[in-house]
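Q: Could you fold this chain for me?
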Amino acid sequence: MVIVGMLATMRSTAPTPVVSAELSQFAVSTHERRIQGRLPLELRSDSEPRLQDWLKARSPFPITLPVYRETLHDDRPYRVEGARLVQLRGKTAALIAYRMEAGPVSLLVVPDSVAVASGGVEADFKKVNFHYRTIDGYKVVTWSVHGLTYALVSREGMTRRPRAWCAIRR
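A: Sure. Below is the predicted structure, expressed as structure tokens.
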């Protein structure tokens, strides 16, 4: 009985996942540090295949990003700039940098054991729920799918949304 009582009162040593609001704030501060030049990219490349290879070699979790199909008239709404790994509560997260016509965009990716998207204004779709927040003039969209959680950060007022980022496939 004493052992059962001790076990019941002990705090769990398993870390609790970061709440979406904390993830969103972390994504905004990471984005700001990147665009201010205080957080340089470890890989600078506009090649999506090179970015995928770099992430595959360095990330401790698998990341599959949507690849924009090139056409004769390359009219994609964004360009990849590069990536780096960052730490969130001692866990690795991947930061992928993009450039849109209206300015820089950052995508932060973590395993859903680290953070799960929730709260904010929700938009429910068949396969995924998106969560929208505005923090310090930035739009932050978070979602969790296939064991990963994503946080997309852009300056509020950017009107074109990259359709490819909403692709839900593995």
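A (continued): The first strand starts at residue 43 and ends at 44.
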